């Protein structure tokens, strides 16, 4: 079972500015849950396209509604519903054609919920702009699609089935447990719906964070962005904060 979410948006900034802001967007006041970012690899292919692989470490909180759906055997060691998780991000930029494609997916909790977010950024050229692709010209559109897929219901149903079969072999009456009143599809739909609502809220915060970085870039250039990142890091983690960006 799969659930999709899609949105479109346009930044009033040029394509070079938006793509630069994308790589410098952490930390910002709307991303205090991001603990660190590391570049795993970066290369340029024969067509001149830049490929980057990064991993983000985030402090995550499972929604309380999801926690209520899950048995302790699935949750494991979670304190207050919060734990750390890792997001793998791949991106490809074609500066000449004016597009960037990104994909981010969770590396943890995939047994409960797999989330894959794809974004495509496109340079928008006004009719009267000509060939001016400078940082201060034009707008950039972005289409975001998010796919949610939960396999938890399948896993729990299979576990319950195995326990029932084992009890039957021992001559015992199968015990009714967590899944007694839930169908497999019902569990999956509930988790996917909750995750979809949370993601919609987070995407709004992500856009606001990008806008802050872009404003810093417009008014202070790269130095302004780096200074803003330093202040955000100190606000979130103190002067000896753990945040890093490689």
TrEMBL record:
InterPro entries: PRELI/MSF1_dom (IPR006797), Slowmo/Ups (IPR037365). GO terms for cellular component: mitochondrial intermembrane space. It comes from the Eukaryota. Residues 2-187 form the PRELI/MSF1 domain. PANTHER family: MSF1/PX19 RELATED (PTHR11158). This is PRELI/MSF1 domain-containing protein. It comes from Cadophora malorum. The lineage of its organism: Eukaryota, Fungi, Dikarya, Ascomycota, Pezizomycotina.
């Amino acid at each position: 079972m799969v659930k999709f979410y899609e949105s479109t948006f346009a930044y009033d900034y040029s394509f070079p500015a938006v793509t630069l802001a994308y790589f410098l967007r952490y930390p910002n006041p709307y991303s205090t849950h991001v603990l660190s970012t590391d570049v795993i690899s970066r290369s340029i292919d024969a067509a001149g396209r830049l490929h980057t692989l990064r991993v983000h470490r985030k402090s995550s909180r499972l929604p309380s509604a999801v926690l209520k759906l899950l048995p302790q055997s699935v949750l494991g060691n979670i304190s207050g519903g919060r734990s750390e998780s890792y997001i793998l991000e791949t991106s490809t930029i074609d500066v000449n054609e004016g597009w960037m494609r990104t994909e981010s997916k969770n590396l943890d909790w995939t047994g409960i919920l797999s989330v894959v977010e794809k974004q495509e950024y496109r340079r928008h050229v006004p009719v009267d702009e000509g060939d001016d692709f400078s940082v201060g010209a034009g707008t950039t559109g972005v289409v975001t699609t998010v796919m949610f897929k939960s396999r938890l219901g399948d896993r729990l149903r299979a576990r319950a089935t195995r326990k029932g079969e084992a009890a039957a072999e021992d001559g015992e009456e199968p015990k009714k447990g967590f899944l007694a009143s839930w169908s497999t599809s019902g569990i999956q739909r509930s988790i996917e719906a909750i995750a979809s609502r949370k993601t919609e809220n987070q995407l709004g915060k992500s856009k606001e964070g990008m806008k802050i970085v872009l404003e810093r870039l417009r008014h202070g250039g790269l130095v302004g962005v780096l200074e803003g990142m330093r202040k955000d890091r100190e606000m979130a983690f103190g002067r000896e904060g753990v945040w890093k960006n490689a």
